[in-house]
Every structure is written in structure tokens, then in C-alpha cells.
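Protein modeling request. Please complete all fields; requests missing the sequence field cannot be processed.
Requester role: graduate student
Desired output: 3D structure, C-alpha cell encoding
Chains: 1
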Amino acid sequence: MKLKNIFMLMALTLGASAFVACGDDDEPTPQDQGTISEANKAVVGVYEGWTQLKTAYIPSETNPGRYANDTFTLALSDGGSLVATFQDATWGTATITGIQATDENADGLYELQGGEGSFVMNNIRTGKTETFSCKLENAVVNPKAHEMSAVISAYMEVGHGNMTFAFQTGEMPAVD
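Delivered output (176 residues):
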């Protein structure tokens, strides 16, 4: 009987050790995620403003191409790069990954570089959505003043040409 109890105690001890040893080692640690640059940390936030749309697809006479109440959100990805989410109530949402911020002049104006993604675009005539590839063409951010200007190009494979969204923080100026 004593031998059986010792055997059971050993089995329980080995089982508990195996369970502890097989814990959540697969979860990434900050070291696994790479170093997050101070520039990327500095620009994280939600920027509110307006957008100027430029495209050959929609004549400017029928659409002034200016949209208020847009947002441009910058967040850190698991790998330390930036993820941008641009939202326009009329046109839809663009999500762009792989962006890096730099402040080469050390003047507090950060340039965003790189980044491609997709634009889930509303078709304003049919009410349906379509997804197009897009990229961040250029962007400059002043996080202290909460200012940003950014240009996103959406590539439409259906023969309409490109749509360029130029985002600017602040109030939309009056239409001339």
C-alpha cells in the first residue's frame, strides 16, 4: 500500500511539473516584439480633421471632394511599427500597416514612411462596399500641437484610376 501511495505522489508531482513547464511560452514578450522607437510612440493618437478627395473618376462639379469629421488614428502594432486607420463617413475606412515615424531634424515634426493596406470603400451610388489596396503616400505629424497632414492613395483596379485622400487636422475651411 505504501508503494502505491509513493507511486501516486510521484505521478502527481511529475504531472504538475509538466503542466507548469508547458505554460504560455508562446506568448510574445516585449523582447520578441522588437524595440519600439520613440518616434513611433510619440505620434500614437487620434487626429481629427477633414479630407480633400482628388480623382478623375468623380467630376468636381458634382462633388466638391471635401469631407468634414474624418479621423486618422495611429496605433502601435505588436511588432512595434504603426498601424493607421483613416475613417471617412462617406467613403469608408482604410487600414494601413508597416508605418515607421522618423524625426530626422529633431524638430518635433515626424514624418511617417512606408505602409500599405486596404481601403474598404463605400460605393456612394450602390450602397455596397468594395475593398481596394491603398498606401500612405506621405504624412507629417506634430504630436505636441496635435496636427497632421497625410495623403492616402487608393488603387482601384476597375478602371476608375486612383483616388487620393489628403487628410488635414482642424476645421474644414469654407468652400469658395
